[in-house]
Design brief:
The chain is α+β, with helices and mostly antiparallel strands and 147 residues long. The chain has three helices and ten strands, in the order ββββααββββββα.
């Protein structure tokens, strides 16, 4: 079993142990959670794009077709699914001692593509776009709580 050493103490990586005496669960580092969310989201988007029946896919995935308005207004209805593709062609970060950003354009092979999905809900009073990462994260956490 892998261990890590923090401040001279040996601990287990990814081990299960009861915290409250009710159930066992694993600890996953934040970087691993982020990578898992990226994989799940990518698979969700790919599945949607490949699905012959988009509504059936959304229903099977548990995407609500209607949801409560957080402001207390009329229920919101799912009317659109948007896909946005972006290419990261460089990076910019604050420069030490300057008001200018430090800009590093990427050479061709380093340019990366990202596709994201938005679930668009509307009512007569409002419009809400839920990022699919929020849905997948919430849905995956709910699935994990059931086990």
């Amino acid at each position: 079993m892998p261990h890590d050493i923090v401040n001279g103490h040996i601990g287990h990586i990814g081990h299960n142990h009861p915290h409250d005496g009710e159930h066992l669960h694993s600890h996953m580092p934040d970087a691993d959670r982020a990578e898992e969310l990226k994989v799940l989201t990518t698979q969700f988007i790919d599945g949607f794009m490949d699905a012959k029946d988009k509504m059936a896919y959304l229903r099977l995935a548990g995407v609500p077709l209607e949801k409560a308005d957080p402001a207390g207004g009329p229920a919101l209805k799912l009317v659109d699914v948007t896909l946005t593709t972006e290419w990261q062609v460089g990076t910019a970060s604050p420069s030490f001692g300057s008001k200018e950003l430090s800009y590093l354009p990427y050479p061709g092979p380093m340019v990366t593509e990202r596709t994201n999905m938005g679930l668009v809900y509307v009512s007569l009073q409002t419009k809400q776009v839920e990022d699919v990462r929020t849905f997948v994260k919430t849905h995956a956490a709910a699935q994990g709580a059931d086990t």
